Amino acid sequence: MSSTSFRNIALVGAGSIGTYILRALIATKQVNAIVITRTAAAKSLPPDLSSVPIIEADYTDVPALTALLKSRNIEIVVSTLSATAPGLKAQYPLADAAKASGTVKLFVPSEWGLASEGAKHRGEDNAFGIKDGFAEHLKTIGLPYTRFYTGFFTEYLQWIVGLETNNSVNVLGEGKTPFSVTSEQDIGGFVAHVLTALPSDSPHLQNKSLRMEGERVTMRDLARIYNQPLVLIPEGNEVPAKTAGEAEFKTSLQIEADGGRASTGWDRLTKTERGDAGAANKLWEGHVWKTVEDISGAN
């Protein structure tokens, strides 16, 4: 596949995963990128990305956002806004501005994790429901989108199992349910590849959910890979953590994993495994995806 044009891409938010995506986009040498943030002064990019313009914007000001996107002739908007309030809901005016700009052909909503498709129809009152509801908004306003499902970030697996608290892999349930993991570097590389190798109106992108998977593992696999004891957490207890908030979040993630919902092939509407976890990997021909062992050995 070859790029059909030089792309003008706006990255909204530049946290951890946003930085990986931005670095990969710049590495393609086929992108003019800008970063849009709420407070430009409070956000600095790593030295290797210091040439990328950071533009401060009010996410609620649709006319100003529209003018910004139009003036930069932005073709693709990639959102990496946080799942914590008000991040995800701030995407609504961004989408309205992208549609009004007349230049934006594709919107990438902030997913970057477990599959959310079907959550709104199931009545889920959580981040998955908010993400799925936003995708419906994109459909309603007629703005094409691409959703990227990644599974857990490989780099955070040790934290999810509480390894830093007791040098053990702490697991809810039996730890035998397989789930999807993908490294942040591979996520950034995959996103950059498909957004530059494919035209923005490609049927592989428009209104599609791309289900990537760097590796498929179980919690028991992690105990073996990390060479640490497996500790099965008694029912009703939380995953050990340094703070109550962290314990609650880790526990919620492991509940998803134990229920099979951390596979990128999970369908939240039917509550079944679709069997297509990692199906999108074929769009990055020849790429060797990083494993948990690769990341563990590098740390």
Automatic annotation (TrEMBL):
Keyword annotations of the record: NADP, Oxidoreductase
Highest rank taxon of the organism: Eukaryota
Keyword Oxidoreductase found: yes
GO molecular function, one term: oxidoreductase activity
UniProt-listed Pfam families: NmrA
Domain (NmrA-like) ranges: 9-230
Keyword set includes NADP: yes
Family statement drawn from the similarity comment of this UniProt entry: Belongs to the NmrA-type oxidoreductase family. Isoflavone reductase subfamily.
Name under which the protein is recorded: NAD(P)-binding protein
